[in-house]
Amino acid sequence: MIPIGASAPGKALLCGEYAVLESAPAVVAAVDRRVWVTWSKDSVPLPPEAKATLQLAQEELGPVPYCLVPDVSDLQQDRVKLGLGSSAAAAAAAAGAVFATHGRDLDDPKTLRRVFACAFEGHASIAPQGSGVDVAASTFGGFLRFARIGDEVETRALTCPSDLVIQLVWTGYAARTSELVQKVGALRRHDLGRYRACMDRLIELARGFASELEAGNASGVVATAASYSNAMAALGKAARAPIVDARLERTAELARRFSGSAKPCGAGGGDVAIAFFLDREAVEGFKVACKDEGLHPIEVSWGATGVRAC
């Protein structure tokens, strides 16, 4: 048996944060910053999601007599996580490495679905509060419409409008998604009416965003993203959670200055913002303004290939 490594892309959530946990659609894209895993005789610590996935994959296909070594540096900035789904990418890559080593073709859609199922279960065993949207992006790549209804997951490939320009910005501050999700959960338990009002608005906008992007309406995407940011801020206020903190709010203000919009890319509280524009020149001005404010534009290619052997 010749051990074959694998890589999987990080992700950026275009829209659907929090609402995706209520069966609303999320739109996610794979980016060309990847996690790489290789086999070695020497053991090193694995992200827990990757470790759990590795065990599940080997239970399904058989053991690989080597240790898996991850490289997640592409999804970090100065050793700090960027919030681009490194744990999900590591899980998808771990499953991919086991399947590839056992001779499975990662270009085969049936194999990819098995890789996803394995990574999805492994990741959920460590982070059960998540939807799995990041695992889907890391496995299948491209742009995806993702929805989870009960135990069923639905994914559909999307095409990004050609006149839509997307820019990531790192706030310089790493957020703890679990803490934000816990505060939103506490709001649901203690004030269901207010939670429901906030969530219904997010669900409405998540559906609208997915529809606008699928229809190729770039201006509709920009406008809906702005509304979604406001709705996330309202949820944060209700839950007493810094979902749209000062850095993310400032990023949105700068995007508006250049006729675009910006919102948290993920649960919020820091990490990464995602901005949408119709004009590439406006994006360049936006990036300069961000740098002047101590914010950090991140350059990526969008719609990267999913998990692959290496």
Strand and helix layout:
Blueprint: E1 6-15, E2 26-40, H1 48-61, E3 67-71, E4 76-77, E5 80-81, H2 86-101, H3 109-126, H4 133-140, E6 143-149, E7 152-158, E8 165-170, H5 177-190, H6 192-214, H7 218-239, H8 246-257, E9 261-264, E10 272-277, H9 280-292, E11 296-298, E12 308-309
Antiparallel strand pairs: 1-2, 1-12, 2-3, 2-6, 4-5, 6-7, 8-10, 8-11, 9-10
Helix pairs in contact: 1-2, 1-3, 2-3, 2-4, 3-4, 5-6, 5-7, 6-7, 8-9
Task: Explain this structure.
The protein is an alpha+beta fold. The protein contains nine helices and twelve strands. It has helices at residues 48-61, 86-101, 109-126, 133-140, 177-190, 192-214, 218-239, 246-257, 280-292; strands at residues 6-15, 26-40, 67-71, 76-77, 80-81, 143-149, 152-158, 165-170, 261-264, 272-277, 296-298, 308-309. The strands form three sheets. Strands 1, 2, 3, 6, 7 and 12 form a six-stranded antiparallel beta sheet that branches. Strands 9-10-8-11 form a four-stranded antiparallel beta sheet, sandwiched between helices. The longest helix has 23 residues, at 192-214.
Strand content: 15-25%
Largest sheet: 6 strands, antiparallel
The total count of helices amounts to 9
Report the count of strand segments: 12
- Domains (count): 2
Mean pLDDT: 94
Specify the oligomeric state: single chain
List the helices and strands in order: EEHEEEHHHEEEHHHHEEHEE
What would you say about this model in short?
The chain is α+β, with helices and mostly antiparallel strands and 310 residues long. It has helices at residues 48-61, 86-101, 109-126, 133-140, 177-190, 192-214, 218-239, 246-257, 280-292; strands spanning 6-15, 26-40, 67-71, 76-77, 80-81, 143-149, 152-158, 165-170, 261-264, 272-277, 296-298, 308-309. α1 (48-61) packs across α3 (109-126), α2 (86-101) crosses α3 and α3 (109-126) runs antiparallel to α4.
